[in-house]
Amino acid sequence: MRVEISYKFVMGFVFVVASIVLLNLVVPYLEIPEVYQRYVMVFSALLVGGVLGLVLSRAFTANFRVLTSSAERLSEGDLTRNVRLPRRAFSDETDDLANSLNLMVESLRSLVAQIRSSSVKVSDAAQGLSASSQEISASSHQVANTIEQISRGAERQAEMVEKGSRVVKELAVSIDLIASSAKKMAASAGDTSSTAEKGGEMARSAMKKMKQVLAEVEDNTRQFASFGENVHRIGKIVDVITGISQKTNLLALNATIEAARAGEYGRGFAVVAEEVRKLAESTGESAGEITKLIETLREESLKVQESMKESTRMMGSGHEAIDTTTGAFEAIIQNAQTTRTKATSIAELSEKQTEGAREIVAAIEEIAQVTEDNAAATEEVSAATEEQSASMEEMAHSAQELSALSEELLAMVGRFKTGLEKG
Amino acid sequence: MEQLLVFSLADELYGLEVDQIQEVVEAPVLHYIPRAPKLLLGAINFHGAVLPVLDLGGYLGLEAERRDQRVIVLAGKSSPMALATTRVKGFIPLEIDALLPLQEERREKTFIRAVQNRGGEMINLLDLDRLLAGMDRLFEETGGDRGA
Known about the structure:
The complex is a heterodimer.
Chain A: H1 5-26, H2 34-76, H3 93-261, H4 267-414
Helix pairs in contact in A: 1-2, 2-3, 3-4
Chain B: E1 3-9, E2 12-17, E3 21-26, E4 40-46, E5 49-55, H1 56-59, E6 70-74, E7 82-84, E8 87-93, E9 99-101, H2 104-110, E10 112-118, E11 121-126, H3 128-142
Parallel strand pairs in B: 2-11, 5-7
Antiparallel strand pairs in B: 1-2, 1-8, 3-6, 4-5, 6-7, 9-10, 10-11
């Protein structure tokens, strides 16, 4: 049953007063001299009052002592035990206070536990943060190094790009040269072709003339053959004349003999015979000369025929040579045309190449631009990483501070004993 | 004026008077005479008569490499015959003043009657009678049936 302390006090007072009153009623009944009665009464009243007061006050303050000691314990940080009051018939505000203290202990305990775990976590987190920031710092160092490398690479790239640009420009110049050379070559091939066509034309006309000459030579050969035939006939006629002159000579001889036989009468006849003989002789001589001339003619005509045959043969080989020449000219024309076609296609290709080289130059310039941008960007990144690095260091510092703070917190919380600590 | 028919035997020139000659014949067909001496080249048909042809050069001991187609038919009374020579030249006038006489003994051996000098050329005049007499001896020696 719950009785408030005030009521308890009232009841105590009532009880003390009642006890004294009762005593006062009891005392006259005791065989105590009157004179002393008063003293006894006072004394008894004091005694009863004192004893009862003591007992009652003790009863009242016993819980307060427990509470005080508990509060002291709490103030020392001992949260291991709850406040436990002796069980009594009548509970009062001290029980409420004990309950409140116990609630406070509970909540302090959980608070301390939470703070402890939180500070441990904070410490851990701070350490982790520190480690992470160190890692990040290391990483950002690496990033800085890498950026440095990239920057160097970008410089090298820029150099290379410039070099490449130069080379491509030179290449473009070379290609232009090739193109102009190819055009010249095409023109030369055209000239060669036309010259070779003229040459072929000349060879054809030479061939035509050669054929004419050949025909003439053949005609001459035929004429010569008929000439030889005629000479042969003349020879035969001359043979006949020679025979006749011989016969005439013989007749003249015999006529001379007959004239001699006729004696004086044959004298005139002998003269005639002599004349005839002379005629025959001169005829024979002339015929002989003609024969000689014919021999000479025959020999010469044989020589002429030989030389004509030689000419014909040489003309045949000349014919072949001209044929070969014509073929050669045709081959030259063919080659020159092929060359011209190829040279033209080379010129076209090299123009395309020039176009390509120009595009390459443009692309390389763009690359150079990009490289410069990259260099600028890497510098920015470098600055950013430096900043980051500084931030990371700050962060690491803060994390260490945080760690220290959490350690401090732990130390502070360490005063509290909850009985739940481990280790 | 007497005429002289000049002909050559090998390189020597010989001559015959025109009245000793019947005719000069061109390229007659030579017929082989069996068992005849070597100096008789053959026989010819002369206007229907058969005449022997004598190798005159061979007979006179002169080696001739060729013979003229013409043969000289002699105007023989008893035994007509033909002479083959190296070459028949023709007639020249006989100049009696230009004749160089020969010694008698030499005439017998060589059948030459006289020699005519004509512009440095020596023409031996043939002694035909002696030659023909020699011929008869030749035929007798060789056992020919000439004159039979």
